[in-house]
């Protein structure tokens, strides 16, 4: 009995193998039409693949987009960092160019004829006083050890900016023209086509942002645009230092004195490098020291 069953199973296996080989051979040959089972099988497989391909493709594209977005963000950050470096470098180059121009102008000013009779000490600004004294005081990096003394004139290439108030061993304090008052007057002259007109710088008008010039000679004509320079008659400040230009002229409330408003030739707000000017021993002394603070 068992022998018959074994033979029957063997026969079934052989027949199945033969049918499988026949089906494989039948399906591999070139045909224009396929059988219904093959068609159903192919369509079923294609439909299942389509069903699973849509979410798989969506997930794959989603992660691809995230990777691209991350890459773009990283590249953007790198570009921003490089752009910031380029901007910083550009600002440094511009600052160096401005400083070079300022130093060159100071060097030319130092060699000018108007300063040949005076000792000139070049200095840089260390800092400025906080508000509200920003426009009145600053500190420079030269002091007594470099020959700086109180009441020496301080100038830039454009003109005078103030005077030394206190000299320490290695630094000094400077009072700007915008901080001058009647106790810190400057004897000046107004240059014109005719004889120069003498006057005194006696203060600073914050509203007009101009120096206040009083002129005793009311018969002298003073017009807008005329140049104002130091007269040197006070015995402290050198003669010929540019102060500024006349902006407007008025009579005082009593009608006895002309009051002119002078726009400073030097930029009193942006000061980086200055020169301290001291007269040499053989410079002439003026006879009237009361006109200018010693």
From TrEMBL:
Cross-referenced Gene3D superfamilies: Rod shape-determining protein MreC, domain 1, Rod shape-determining protein MreC, domain 2
Alphabetized UniProt keyword annotations: Cell shape, Coiled coil
Pfam families in alphabetical order: MreC
GO cellular component: plasma membrane
GO biological process, one term: regulation of cell shape
Occurrences of domain Rod shape-determining protein MreC beta-barrel core (ranges): 127-277
Chain coiled-coil ranges: 69-116
Family statement drawn from the similarity comment of this UniProt entry: Belongs to the MreC family.
Function statement: Involved in formation and maintenance of cell shape.
The protein's name in its UniProt record: Cell shape-determining protein MreC
């Amino acid at each position: 009995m068992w022998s018959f069953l074994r033979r029957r199973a063997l026969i079934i296996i052989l027949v199945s193998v033969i049918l499988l080989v026949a089906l494989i051979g039948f399906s591999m040959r070139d045909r224009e039409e396929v059988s219904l089972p093959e068609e159903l099988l192919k369509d079923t497989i294609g439909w299942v693949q389509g069903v699973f391909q849509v979410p798989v493709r969506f997930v794959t594209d989603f992660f691809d987009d995230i990777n691209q977005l991350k890459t773009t963000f990283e590249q953007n950050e790198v570009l921003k960092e490089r752009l910031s470096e380029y901007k910083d470098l550009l600002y440094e180059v511009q600052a160096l160019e401005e400083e070079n121009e300022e130093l060159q102008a100071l060097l030319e000013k130092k060699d000018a004829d108007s300063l040949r009779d005076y000792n000139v000490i070049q200095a840089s600004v260390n800092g400025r006083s906080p508000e509200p004294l920003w426009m009145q005081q600053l500190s420079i990096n030269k002091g007594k050890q470099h020959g700086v003394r109180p009441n020496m004139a301080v100038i830039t290439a454009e003109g005078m900016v103030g005077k030394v108030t206190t000299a320490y061993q290695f630094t000094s304090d400077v009072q700007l023209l915008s901080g001058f008052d009647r106790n810190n007057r400057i004897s000046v002259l107004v240059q014109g086509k005719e004889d120069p007109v003498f006057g005194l710088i006696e203060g600073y008008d914050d509203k007009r942002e101009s120096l206040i010039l009083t002129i005793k000679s009311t018969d002298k004509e003073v017009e807008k645009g005329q140049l104002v320079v130091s007269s040197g008659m006070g015995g402290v400040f050198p003669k010929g230092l540019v102060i500024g230009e006349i902006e407007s002229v008025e009579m005082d409330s009593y009608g006895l004195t002309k009051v002119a408003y002078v726009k400073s030739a030097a930029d009193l707000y942006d000061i980086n490098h200055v020169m301290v000017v001291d007269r040499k021993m053989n410079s002439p002394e003026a006879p009237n020291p009361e006109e200018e603070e010693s």
